[in-house]
Here is the input.
Amino acid sequence: MPNIVVVGAQWGDEGKGKVIDLLTPSYNYVVRYQGGNNAGHTVVSGNEKFVLHLVPSGVLHKNKICIIGPGVVVDPKALIEEIEMLKSKGIDVEGRLFISEQAHVIFPYHRTIDELKETKKGKAKIGTTKKGIGPCYADKVARSGIRMVDLLNDEVFTKRLKENLSEKNAILKTLYDFKGFFFDEIHSLYIGYRDRIKKYIVDTTVMLDEAVRKKKSIVFEGAQGTHLDVDCGTYPFVTSSNSTAGGACAGSGVGPTKIDKVVGVVKAYTTRVGEGPFPTEFPGDLMNEIRSRGGEYGATTGRPRRCGWFDACLVRRSIIVNGMKEIAVTKLDVLDKLPSIKICTAYKYKDKIYENFPSDIEVLTNCEPIYKEYKGWQKDTTTITSYIKLPSNAKAYLREIEKLLRTKIGLISVGQDRKQAFVIE
Ligand code: GDP
Ligand code: IMO
Ligand code: MG
Here is the structure.
């Protein structure tokens, strides 16, 4: 099997977890390469529902090796809770879950700074998950972060934690009038976490190099979505990592010559959680209808997701920046009842037409989407098992998406369950 990167092509929650779970049986390794427990990847099998935040979505398949790469930021408390949750549902990760020694560690001060910063911003907030992701990546880039390998070395850990606390406590006091954190408390808490997770911490770069040499196959699991990428996304309303396919190399320690294919996951419409421009966002009634039909509530924070029409302009940009050769379309069933469906093909702002996705946040916020309208199929698609059996209007809608994106659809999903999906040969 070729080594493959799976990325979200919109603003996250496209159904990456489901797609990765479907692909895993054909692969040996599943590797998360960025983000942290801001992600919420859902896999549904029969009556069982799993929401994964840090552990790769391939974990439900026995014997598959799951790696949390160097580019991920790990909150050890969240990781331990997730491992326990999996154990309670009969999924054993022992001997097949590995965390990179280079992955950075999230501390309570990261979560607190995330929260206080958002509160202080008021209406101008980003709408983060408040999991401490941004502040942890900020420390990494500022070269003051603490990695898994540092946690394993008492002397280094003590020194770096002291340095961090002295800086963080000063910031917290001065900017937010917050009392700060005590060294002894955090130190002993994290030594406790370390003792629970140290058996998983290894040099995953060497592991993956061996895997590549032995011709084992790898799925790289993207978190968030292309337009939440810190470089390629709708900055500043983005996350703090490279969620695009390029991030798979830096965030896993596997070079670009070892990656064969990039698949983008797209919803048949668009959603976004948090603040930021969203040109095709629905007006009230349609928003409620699609939100309720699609169960559009955040898998990590429970926040209602904003919903809108499919935006071909947005996804065309994703095709480019990820080098996608193929897309998987999810949640087609959510559109089953609509009499007509729109796709945005370009934007208009101050008499200028934008066919390429604009970077200027003012244009994105105030532009008017230019839509093409299609007839709905108004038939249930949730039991359909092949492309040929889809209602003709659904096929026409999908063909139009392929045409507008100049990219082929390789998989279609028509419900939450593993079984509700089919490949297009
Ligand atoms: P991820 O972050 O990209 O993995 O996506 P999430 O798990 O956050 O959100 C996707 C949601 O849609 C989850 O609740 C999935 O169970 C659900 N889902 C995935 N594919 C389909 C589909 O084809 N139809 C429906 N109705 N739900 C789906
Ligand atoms: P998955 O992997 C959707 C959004 C947040 C916020 C912005 C920054 O499940 O698709 P952060 O906490 O990362 O600093 O928040 O990014 N966000 C997501 N939106 N799906 C996600 O992950 C997200 N992870 C972060 O809502 O707008
Ligand atoms: Mg999600």
About this structure: The radius of gyration is 22 Å. The longest strand covers residues 340-349. The mean pLDDT is 97.
